[in-house]
Amino acid sequence: MTAKNLYAYTLQPVSYEVSEAEQRNAQLTIWRSTNKIGIKAWAIMGIVVLLSILGIVLIKNYSTIFCWVALACVAIYLLVRKYGLEWYVKRKMNEMPAQEIKGIRLGVQPTGIVMRQKVGLQEGVGSVGWKDMYEWYDTPEFLLVNFKLKGQQGAYILPKRMDSKNFAFSTIRKHLKESVGEAKNI
Questions:
Q1: Concatenated DSSP letters for 14-45?
Q2: CA-based, 20 to 30 A from 90: which of 11, 50, 57, 138?
């Protein structure tokens, strides 16, 4: 062990503040990861395009209109799936209120992630154990950790700017790999 990482856990909780823009970015990134066109859809579109091109080449006169319509439908489907749905999702996200997260401090402990929040004159303390976390994403901008605690689902959006000696992402990744497995791809 080097002097730099003698103690990989939090001695003093760090401030956890996530802006509305960071929350929206995380939501949109996760949505984009789920909005993939499947293999079956690509296969169907490929067959339709192939048959339409064969129809245009082999069939003469007005009968080719059906083939042109099929090609147009495939193009429209791809455009709607790529740009239309994202526009709709962004619009719906802007309708939903997102409150900036402030006044919370987080720490990393061998048992999980500890959260401290001042409520009036008292300080509330909560903990999410590593065993309560069921999936996580590692992106260039943030770590997203989903958990289920006492029947309630929740998530931590951990911006990469929080990575410090008091809140080591390497320790978080180590525990998540041990308890959950590898990060999901986005």
A1: EEEEE-HHHHHHHHHHHHHHH-PPPHHHHHHH
A2: 138
